[in-house]
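Sample entry (308 residues):
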Amino acid sequence: MRLGVAVDLGSAAATRPQVDRAAKLLETARASGLSSAWVGESYHARPEVFHLPAALIVLGHLAGRTDLPLGTAVLLARAYEPRRLAYEAALLDQLCGGRLTLGLALGNADLAGRVGGGTGDRRPAEWFADLVVSLRETWSSAGVAPPPARPGGPPMLLGGRTRAGAVRAATIGDGYYAATNYGDGLLAARAADYWDARAGEPGEVAVTRLCLVAEDAGEARESAARYFAPVTDYYTSRRAWFGQDGPEQPRFPLVGSPADVVAALRRYASSGVTSVQLRVAPYGTPPEVARRTLELVGTAVLPELDKT
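Predicted structure, serialized as tokens:
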């Protein structure tokens, strides 16, 4: 299993200081053995604790400040005109030297009216599938200049909460991406759907998870209750922390001692998850707390995972 770091950036504070702190966090992540860095996006009408809009712009800035592979987790397709997205993703792949993975999800319907994207009169699922196919065909045919750094363009991990979304990821994508607010039962169900549709072929199931590690498990849980509240409140106020049968209460499998986190990651691996992006610094989390989590992941979690 591969571990990356998910960078929290929001519109509730000035952007540049957040990005500067994130760049320092990525230095710690790399030194601790994490293998990638991921940025999400949202298009809010008022300040929120996460995310910023235009994830490709943010990653373009970070590309010159880290040599970690970069990913979008996830980019919201309805906010983009497909041809322009092909150009911008290809350019970012050039800027980061072929280190980009493009996580994509459809996004809410209101994006069309607010930021100019959208599916027109077409069925959203059909439009999204055609977008993915069009991106790959455009990159493979050298239909944009500059082209992506890699022939065929960056790999694409596709999100979606339904079984149809996981099957779509298995059939036209390079992997499936599950969000922070997908509970473990929902994650396991979608991972099973994905691997069933892959029919024995290799693939990837990635997920973002809130993570806080301390030597003492009780201390970790107390800190997480304090520092993760802005994120969980955002989701629960919208009834958007999902289990298999609808909204559920948030749970934090990756909060606790190193042994607790190792056990949880092994459970994820057994359910078909291949990579986890650790969300260690939500809005308001002291930098030293996030840094300590990453250091413990490097010294006490990854070595145990490597034994399995």
